[in-house]
């Protein structure tokens, strides 16, 4: 059972890219199973004493490791311009992509009208009421998934036949133009220009297109080790997140099976990634959000700005009620805790262990936004530490308060912390943390 899944366990931006990059040398294939170019997985490494940084939006994070094949699964919505630009940037670093990147023929395409409609919808919501605005990235992800499930989407395989593509596009664009023109008073789109653009795109990606489900099945039968990565986080899952302030796909464990076409019986490890505190981008409820100096300090010290949009992230204390919920939904075998170093220098650390709602305390996470907005987080206060821990490589060298912080999380969740990231670089990682729950 050689499939491992790496899953964001909060509202996204937990540091999945670094952990996938760390685990990639031990696998044969890294496969992305959902989301689109709204994801931003940042990789930071040291080269000859200099720090290099690269942000991936579509290509899986294993691409920087020679011998690792990367798969973009059918559950991903593909932006043609974004994928071509990303391939070009990766190759400019001297990294060979040819033969190492496989794109599902069943992946749905993001079309220009998806971006246009999403922009018009967000503008309409913003003008109507701040409470209605979702806070999307504007990459056309939601409308692309809408068309997928309405059975009107355009898939990569549709590019193979220009007549079929033109017929399907003409029907879709006529419908979308009516919406843009009559509902949002926006400019209509040109069918022929879009067809020409996407036929050209097909010629450029044809060598990458594969029946990835069949490819993965053969590879697994031959004993290959597969690492599956999602985008966003579990609390943004369209079914299990804070709906409607969510993404339009399934970042949770179940999304791996449907987004890649692999069987649940192939999965043997589910690794949840969580920050040592919480962040959220966009609108929606956030019980432990900090509006004052501490929240601002976390944002500045942690570099909490979206890798895709540059938007400042909302910051708050670690929410164990929410994390316990995502542990349940995903069945995590273990956790990787990131950005522990950002908490250095804070005298007292607060951790949410219960919600107070309608006069009662509960450990239940209410995914209904109207209820989640009303909960009052109940905190345990733990001592902080002053020392800079960014160069620590062994758990025993952490300050006692930092070790206690890890142990508190493990004991509350009853899930082992197997990795601790204490900085953005590849080398800033602690792996010998298994004994912490007994501390």
Polypeptide structure, described:
This protein is α/β, with parallel strands linked by helices. The chain has helices at 16-23, 80-92, 112-128, 141-149, 162-183, 191-205, 212-221, 253-260, 293-302, 320-330, 369-372, 400-413, and strands spanning 3-8, 29-32, 41-47, 50-56, 69-72, 77-78, 101-104, 108-109, 209-210, 226-229, 267-275, 278-280, 314-316, 318-319, 334-338, 348-357, 360-362, 376-383, 416-421, 429-430. The strands form five sheets. A ten-stranded mixed beta sheet has the order 9-7-5-2-10-1-11-15-19-20, with helices on both faces. Strands 14, 16, 17 and 18 form a four-stranded mixed beta sheet that branches. Strands 3-4 form a two-stranded antiparallel ribbon. A hairpin with a 7-residue loop joins strand 19 and strand 20 (429-430). Helix 3 packs across helix 4, helix 3 runs parallel beside helix 5 and helix 5 (162-183) packs across helix 6 (191-205). It is globular, with a radius of gyration of 22 Å. The model is unreliable at 435-439 (pLDDT under 50).
Task: Walk me through the topology.
Elements: E1 3-8, H1 16-23, E2 29-32, E3 41-47, E4 50-56, E5 69-72, E6 77-78, H2 80-92, E7 101-104, E8 108-109, H3 112-128, H4 141-149, H5 162-183, H6 191-205, E9 209-210, H7 212-221, E10 226-229, H8 253-260, E11 267-275, E12 278-280, H9 293-302, E13 314-316, E14 318-319, H10 320-330, E15 334-338, E16 348-357, E17 360-362, H11 369-372, E18 376-383, H12 400-413, E19 416-421, E20 429-430
Parallel strand pairs: 1-10, 1-11, 2-5, 2-10, 5-7, 6-8, 7-9, 11-15, 14-16, 15-19
Antiparallel strand pairs: 3-4, 12-13, 16-17, 16-18, 19-20
Helix pairs in contact: 3-4, 3-5, 5-6
């Amino acid at each position: 059972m050689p499939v491992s899944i790496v899953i964001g366990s909060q509202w996204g931006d937990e540091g999945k890219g670094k952990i996938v990059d760390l685990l990639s040398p031990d696998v044969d294939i890294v496969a992305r199973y959902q989301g689109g170019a709204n994801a931003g997985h940042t990789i930071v490494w040291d080269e000859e004493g200099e720090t290099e940084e690269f942000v991936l939006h579509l290509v899986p994070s294993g691409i920087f490791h020679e011998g690792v094949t990367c798969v973009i699964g059918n559950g991903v919505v593909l932006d043609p311009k974004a994928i071509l630009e990303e391939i070009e940037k990766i190759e400019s670093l001297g990294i060979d992509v040819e033969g190492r990147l496989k794109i599902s023929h069943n992946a749905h395409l993001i079309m220009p009208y998806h971006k246009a409609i999403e922009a018009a919808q967000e503008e309409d919501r913003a003008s109507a009421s701040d409470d209605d605005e979702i806070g999307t990235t504007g990459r056309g992800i939601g409308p692309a998934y809408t068309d997928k499930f309405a059975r009107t989407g355009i898939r990569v395989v549709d590019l193979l036949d220009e007549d079929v593509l033109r017929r399907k596009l003409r029907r879709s664009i006529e419908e979308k133009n009516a919406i843009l023109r009559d509902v949002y008073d926006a400019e209509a789109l040109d069918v022929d220009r879009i067809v020409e653009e996407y036929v050209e795109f097909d010629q450029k990606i044809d060598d990458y297109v594969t029946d990835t489900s069949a490819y993965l099945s053969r590879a697994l039968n031959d004993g290959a080790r597969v690492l599956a990565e999602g985008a966003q986080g579990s609390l943004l899952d369209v079914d299990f997140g804070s709906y409607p302030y969510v993404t339009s796909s399934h970042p949770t464990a179940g999304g791996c099976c449907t987004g890649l076409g692999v069987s649940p019986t192939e999965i043997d490890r589910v690794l949840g990634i969580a920050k040592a505190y919480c962040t959220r981008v966009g609108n929606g409820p956030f019980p432990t959000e900090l509006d004052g100096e501490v929240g601002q300090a976390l944002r500045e010290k942690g570099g909490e700005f979206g890798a895709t949009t540059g938007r400042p992230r909302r910051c708050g204390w670690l929410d164990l009620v929410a994390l316990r919920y995502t542990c349940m939904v995903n069945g995590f075998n273990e956790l990787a805790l990131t950005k522990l170093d950002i908490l250095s220098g804070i005298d007292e650390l607060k951790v949410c262990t219960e919600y107070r709602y309608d006069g009662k305390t509960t450990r239940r996470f209410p995914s209904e936004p109207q209820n989640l907005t009303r909960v009052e987080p109940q905190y345990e206060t733990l001592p902080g530490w002053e020392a800079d821990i960014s160069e620590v490589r062994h758990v025993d060298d952490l300050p006692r308060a930092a070790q206690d912080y890890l142990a508190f999380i493990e004991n509350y969740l009853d899930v082992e912390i197997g990795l601790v990231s204490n900085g953005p670089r590849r080398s800033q990682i602690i792996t010998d943390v298994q004994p912490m729950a007994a501390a």
